[in-house]
Amino acid sequence: MRYFQFIEPYMKKTLFFCAIILVLSSCGGGSSSSDSGSASSAQACNAIGLQARIINGNTCSETGSSVLRVLAQVDLGREVVNFPVCTGTLVTPNTVITAAHCFLESTVAGFPVVGYAVYVGEAGSGQVIPAADIAVAPGVRVEQSVGRWFNDAALILLKSSLSLPLMPILLSRSVQTGEDGFVYGYGAREQGDTTEGLDFAKLQSGTMTIQNVTPNHIFVAFSGNGVNVCNGDSGGPLVVLVNGQPALAGVTSQGSKQGCVAGDVTTFTNLQQSDVLNWLRKMIPSAYVRTL
């Protein structure tokens, strides 16, 4: 199932109900489909303090990770299940930033969504932390003339605090065209059929070269080689390095080609967009920022 089918550039998100329900108890799988960038996948894991589990691969250890699964709590009638829908990043002990479009549907596979949560840790042995509230960035919208989301960001305010590393937000400089950006997510791992491998079981990462930057968006292109973000990676972080340290520059929003195939252009919400940045400063003044 694909949400927002009226929008040609599809969301980097999909919901494959039967398989994904099992993820929190048993399944294996992953995220980013295979872009270009000068750094290795292992470097992407290391950039945020995680170990690469597969040599020259793109799966990161989730121990101590600030990148988390975003869950919709779905009422099946007899029980409420936690259903992974997106990726998010911990920016304060009780706040996760993700994409606003992750919360714009009231049902999953026809069943009502009754709440949200995040999942911390490895699939099958982690912990569900419920959300107390969801805050959506001001001015979030689709501009049909360009087929693109604007201000596609949201905050998950958790009921309890987490003792995990926090991802600092980039403030010290603008993102530069041509620099490496590190991407992370729990989404599909195969091109074409984006339900293949979409079980949200593994945190995957990679490096993409930033192609263009505007006040509202950051863009990367997938040539067919290397790494690409895909369905399920919505809301995940785009990270750049500042003096060798990671900083959160963008949030995964949408792609231009169904199936995440060659020629796909991914759009990230630029967190330095003035309305979004002012909103973040108001909502989470305690958030750690990268200023050096």
Task: Offer a few descriptive terms.
single chain, 292 residues, mainly beta, Thrombin, subunit H, 7% helix
Q: What strand line-up does the widest sheet have?
A: 12-13-14-17-16-15
Category by helix and strand content = mainly beta
Taking the alpha carbons of the first and last residues, their distance comes to 43 Å
Number of DSSP E strands: 18
Uncertain segments are 1-10, 13-39, 53-57, 193-197
Q: Describe the largest sheet.
A: 6 strands, antiparallel, barrel
Would you tell me the overall average pLDDT?
Answer: 82
- Radius of gyration, in Å, reads 17 Å
What is the second-level CATH architecture of the domain at 41-62 and 167-272?
Beta Barrel
Top CATH class of the domain at 41-62 and 167-272: Mainly Beta
Helix content percent band:
under 10%
CATH homology group of the domain at 41-62 and 167-272: Trypsin-like serine proteases
CATH level 3 topology of the domain at 41-62 and 167-272? Thrombin, subunit H
Number of helices: 3
Strand content: 35-45%
Order of helices and strands: HHEEEEEEEEEEEEEEEEEHE
CA-based shape: globular
Write a structural description.
Helices cover 7% and strands 37% of the residues. It is mainly beta and 292 residues long. The protein has a domain at 41-62 and 167-272: Thrombin, subunit H, CATH 2.40.10. A 6-stranded antiparallel β-barrel has the order 12-13-14-17-16-15. A 6-stranded antiparallel beta barrel has the order 2-3-4-10-7-6. Mean pLDDT is 82; it is low at 1-10, 13-39, 53-57 and 193-197.
